[in-house]
Write a structure and sequence with these properties.
With 467 residues, the protein is of the alpha+beta class. It folds into two domains: 8-267, 2-methylcitrate dehydratase PrpD; 277-399, 60s Ribosomal Protein L30, Chain: A, CATH 3.30.1330.120. The chain contains 20 helices and six strands. It has a four-stranded mixed β-sheet. The chain has a two-stranded antiparallel sheet with strand order 1-2. α1 (8-18) packs across α8 and α5 packs antiparallel against α6 (126-146).
């Protein structure tokens, strides 16, 4: 692998260092602004998410001030602590975006890293932030596509690959040159972690993983900025990402080819429901069946067919009394299907412990998940449901697409409705107080400093009386 790609990391750093705002196509700028807005909304909605209060308490216990902002309470802390906490918040409801083929959540890592780096650096313009976001997100998407079966091996690619991508984004904020950017990504690789065991065990570490990635990326860029060197063969070396972590199961040409012509971030999906993306097609199918008039009382049992990797992530039997019900339910296809069919909608409250444990969705335990032989193992969208009805009839339904993906995107109205609803859910922010923040986020290239963006976001929290 090292001989085939002798300077992969160095070449990538050179490409990254050369990108600026003026080299971004309009479609890229528009996409980055839209997902930035969505991520701010998801962070606000997470104000009452399980584990967030405890995480902030743990971090601030060791803080006596700093130059970066905790977006949930406005406190000033060390930039690495801000990156960790804000990224964990962005992922804590599993309502954040995903690049479906790459199987990575990107803005939950990259936006908090850019914000922390921007506050650490000083006056950073909206254009600089957009360039950093675009670079970090694009690197992230390409790494996910390159390491195409990372999740199947047991890695959590958002956490694992996110640290390298966050380092690239922070390097852009700091204005690092190509050698410094290479060092930053190498230093991030040295800190790389991430495992799907926290999904299997249904624990809150799942939310903190992206925080670890954002923290590591910002720290790596800061170290590189001050002259600390990292392994320059962090990708192609014998103990680099491709050989050590991915066991040679990679497509490095995706990472390196067509920069400037092909932007993979344009293929991002925005989530319509706050749970693992692997469950979203089952939700769609449940809502379609409900529209036909089918109700839980009509169902004796059923089988949910998923691709192999999806089944690995969300195919476990539903346990109504699971010790960590929120995480368990968010990563359970049977529960997602049952909640959608029972209630006719799926929202943040669908995964509250009392909702997961209620009698009305206990029938989810009668649904069995299996691997579909005709679905590509790593494909995200496909799902098939076969229900055995109480009258003896069999009902089959399937879909190969998912809502929120590029081929079925959320409309502009739906994006704004989600954003406003999330601020209302987390902070009780009145709709009339959200408009200025919306306009600023959607005209980010016109802003002289990211400080204004952060101030407006905190003001929305104050307007809702959340503090």
């Amino acid at each position: 692998m090292e001989q085939q790609w002798p300077s992969c990391g160095r070449e990538l750093a050179t490409i990254i260092a050369a990108i600026d705002y003026d080299s971004l196509p309009p479609a890229v700028v528009s996409t980055v602004k839209r997902f930035t807005l969505d991520t701010f909304g998801v962070i606000a909605a997470a104000a009452r998410a399980p584990g967030m209060e405890e995480l902030l308490a743990a971090l601030t216990e060791w803080e006596s001030g700093g130059c970066a902002t905790l977006l949930h309470n406005g406190r000033r802390v060390n930039p690495v602590s801000a990156a960790l906490a804000n990224a964990a918040a962005a992922h804590s409801l599993d309502f954040d975006d995903q690049h479906d083929p790459a199987r990575v959540h990107v803005f939950c890592v990259i936006l908090p890293a850019v914000l922390a780096a921007a506050e650490a650096h000083g006056r950073v313009s909206g254009k600089t932030a957009l360039a950093a976001l675009a670079v970090g997100v694009e690197v992230f998407c390409r790494l996910g596509l390159t390491c195409y079966n990372s999740l199947g091996k047991g890695w959590h690619p958002t956490t694992a690959l996110g640290c390298i991508s966050a380092a690239a984004a922070a390097a852009k904020v700091f204005g690092l040159d190509a050698p410094q950017t290479l060092n930053a990504m190498g230093l991030a690789y040295v800190q790389m972690s991430g495992t799907t065991q926290f999904i299997a065990d249904g624990v809150l570490a799942k939310r903190v993983g992206p925080g670890f990635a954002a923290r590591s990326g910002v720290l790596a860029a800061q170290l590189a900025r001050h002259g600390i060197t990292g392994p320059h063969r962090f990708l192609e070396g014998n103990a680099g990402l491709f050989a050590l972590h991915e066991r040679g199961e990679v497509s490095p040409e995706i990472l390196m080819a067509d920069w400037g012509q092909r932007w993979h971030l344009l293929d991002l999906s925005m989530k319509p429901w706050p749970c693992c993306r692997c469950t979203h097609t089952t939700i769609q199918l449940a809502l379609a069946l409900r529209a036909e008039g089918i109700r839980p009382c009509d169902i004796d049992g059923g089988v949910i067919e998923l691709g192999r990797v999806n089944h690995q992530i969300v195919g476990a039997p539903f346990e109504r009394l699971h010790p960590t019900p929120t995480v368990h339910a968010q990563f359970n296809a049977a529960y997602a299907f049952a909640a959608a069919l029972t209630d006719g909608a799926v929202g943040i409250d669908s995964f509250a412990p009392e909702q997961v444990r209620r009698d009305a969705t206990a029938w989810a335990s009668r649904l069995r998940c299996v691997v579909a032989a005709d679905f590509a193992p790593t494909a995200v969208p496909p799902a098939r449901i076969r229900l055995r009805l109480a009258d003896g009839a069999i009902r089959d339904i399937a879909s190969l697409t998912m809502k929120g993906a590029p081929d079925d995107p959320l409309s502009e109205r739906e994006v704004l409705e989600k954003f406003r609803a999330n601020l209302r859910y987390g902070w009780q922010t009145p709709a009339g107080r959200v408009g200025v923040l919306e306009k600023v986020l959607l005209s980010l290239e016109q802003q002289e400093s990211m400080t204004l963006v952060i101030s407006l976001f905190i003001a929305c929290q104050d307007a809702g009386g959340a503090r």
